[in-house]
């Protein structure tokens, strides 16, 4: 497991130009930029693991199992991104990544933050904050370059009890993900309690739609369809990966930033990233493709949390009907911060399809966070 370990750095404290590149107009770190780095790191770690396989293997990102923000990315601290392969199935690999702040008193200089130097030798724990900033689990798949079909990945050699525990945790994550897919709303009807909630939502939205009730929709309630934001993007070679397809991290950043805007316009205040749940890269995106990204707030709570769903479609511009296929679906959880005190905004569906999106968002918000 340790053979795939990699530690790299984002020296925000010591590198003013990097800090400026990653900063938003709020004076915060742009999470979307860091998502690109995490995906690139996940791929690099997976490639380290498959080096030495019986045949040369290619690696692609299959999904982001889960990503949780435990604290704010500091703009005035150097940041460590470290990870390794933590579980291997047949052709799939789980890559666990942690983001932590480097302590200023550690004495680590800008010259010391060399990703090659620390490729096999991580910083001592005493140099890092004991507070996790972010944890993420990427699922990578090894492919036979000739056939582009899944090919067996080298198995892990578990040397310590801690590694065995991580491996068991990865197996549990995989089992839970399979169970979740089997119980998805696309496969099965809602549970009895969820059906009861749908009926409650139905009664609420009908009273606002029926003129005879005389009831007006409260100011803090927004129809789900009115939270929609759309962005059409042309992809370029600069955003390609090793396989000449559009880099998954680039797609994640585009989706995150559109999702942030949809959530911020809905809540009317700035947002803090909470989690990103189960992104599946359904189809690879060719260089030069036209991407159509659509974001909606699908669920919200009284505490100001919200789930934003972003769908990324590839548009066939040579087709007279402009047909498109779904490439990715992103589920991002935010919480609104600051602003005027009062009732938080609520999103309200008014169709069965929107109610299913509401329930899916609720499930994802209430789902488990990433473990070790």
UniProtKB/TrEMBL annotation:
GO CC: one term?
Answer: mitochondrion
What residues does the HotDog ACOT-type domain cover? 1-146, 225-340
InterPro entries attached to this UniProt entry: HOTDOG_ACOT, HotDog_dom_sf
UniProt-listed GO biological process terms:
acyl-CoA metabolic process
Q: Which UniProt keywords apply?
A: Hydrolase, Isomerase, Repeat, Transit peptide
Identify the Gene3D superfamilies for this entry: Hotdog Thioesterase
SUPFAM superfamilies per UniProt: Thioesterase/thiol ester dehydrase-isomerase
TM regions (residue ranges): none
Gene Ontology molecular functions: fatty acyl-CoA hydrolase activity; isomerase activity
* Family according to the record: Belongs to the acyl coenzyme A hydrolase family.
The UniProt entry, under PANTHER family, shows: ACYL-COA THIOESTERASE, ACYL-COENZYME A THIOESTERASE 9, MITOCHONDRIAL
Q: What is this protein called?
A: Thioesterase/thiol ester dehydrase-isomerase
Q: Which organism is it from?
A: Rhizoclosmatium globosum
């Amino acid at each position: 497991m340790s053979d795939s370990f990699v530690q790299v750095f984002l020296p925000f404290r010591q590198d003013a130009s990097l800090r400026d590149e990653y900063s938003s107009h709020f004076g915060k770190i742009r999470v979307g930029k860091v998502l690109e780095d995490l995906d690139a790191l996940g791929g690099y770690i997976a490639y380290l693991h498959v080096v030495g396989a019986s045949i040369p293997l290619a690696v692609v990102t299959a999904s982001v199992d889960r990503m949780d923000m435990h604290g704010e990315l500091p703009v005035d601290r150097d940041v460590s991104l470290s990870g390794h392969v933590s579980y291997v199935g047949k052709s799939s690999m789980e890559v666990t990544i942690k983001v932590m702040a480097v302590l200023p008193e550690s004495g680590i200089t800008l010259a010391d933050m060399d990703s090659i130097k620390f490729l096999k030798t991580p910083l001592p724990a005493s140099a890092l904050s004991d507070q996790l900033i972010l944890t993420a689990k990427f699922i990578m798949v090894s492919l036979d370059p000739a056939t582009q079909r899944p090919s067996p990945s080298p198995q892990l050699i578990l040397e310590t009890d801690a590694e065995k525990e991580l491996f068991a945790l990865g197996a549990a994550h995989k089992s839970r993900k399979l169970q979740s897919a089997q119980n998805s709303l696309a496969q099965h009807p809602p549970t009895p309690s969820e059906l009861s909630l749908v009926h409650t939502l139905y009664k609420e939205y009908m009273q606002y739609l029926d003129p005879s009730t005389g009831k007006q929709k409260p100011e803090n309630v927004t129809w789900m369809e009115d939270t929609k934001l759309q962005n059409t993007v042309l992809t370029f070679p600069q955003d390609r990966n090793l396989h000449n397809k559009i880099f998954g991290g680039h797609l994640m950043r585009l989706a995150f930033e559109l999702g942030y805007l949809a959530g911020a316009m809905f809540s009317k205040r700035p947002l803090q990233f909470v989690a990103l749940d189960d992104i599946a890269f359904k189809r690879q995106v060719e260089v030069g493709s036209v991407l159509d990204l659509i974001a909606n707030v699908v669920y919200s709570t009284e505490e100001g949390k919200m789930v934003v769903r972003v769908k990324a479609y590839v548009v066939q511009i040579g087709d007279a009907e402009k047909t498109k296929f779904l490439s990715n679906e992103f589920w991002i959880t935010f919480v609104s911060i600051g602003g005027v005190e009062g009732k938080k905004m609520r999103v309200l569906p008014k169709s069965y399809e929107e109610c299913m999106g509401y329930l899916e968002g609720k499930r994802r918000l209430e789902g488990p966070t990433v473990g070790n």
